[in-house]
TrEMBL record:
Belongs to the Bfd family. The keyword Iron-sulfur applies. InterPro entries: BFD-associated_ferredoxin, BFD-like_2Fe2S-bd_dom, BFD-like_2Fe2S-bd_dom_sf. The lineage of its organism: Bacteria, Pseudomonadati, Pseudomonadota, Gammaproteobacteria, Moraxellales. Signal peptide: none annotated. Its cofactor is [2Fe-2S] cluster. Residues 2-51 form the BFD-like [2Fe-2S]-binding domain. This is Bacterioferritin-associated ferredoxin. PANTHER family: BACTERIOFERRITIN-ASSOCIATED FERREDOXIN. One of its GO terms (molecular function) is metal ion binding.
């Protein structure tokens, strides 16, 4: 599904980037340019980042 129409970025691209360590809104803006044009995608980008952190950061914390 498209997240950022301005820069032709799909949710799968964002999820892949986050798994590679690009896991903040600011880092995604720098790496993929999401939210750097009209900004309409920012709520969805933030939701994806929040979901990623809830899923993967919580798992990392439990492993320690």
């Amino acid at each position: 599904m498209y997240v950022c129409i301005c820069h032709d970025i799909k949710d799968t691209q964002i999820k892949t980037a986050m798994l590679q360590g690009v896991d903040s809104v600011e880092a995604l803006q720098s790496e993929l340019l999401v939210g750097t044009c009209c900004g309409c995608c920012m709520p969805m980008v933030q939701d994806l980042v929040d979901e990623h952190h809830a899923k993967y950061v919580a798992v990392d914390a439990m492993a320690v």
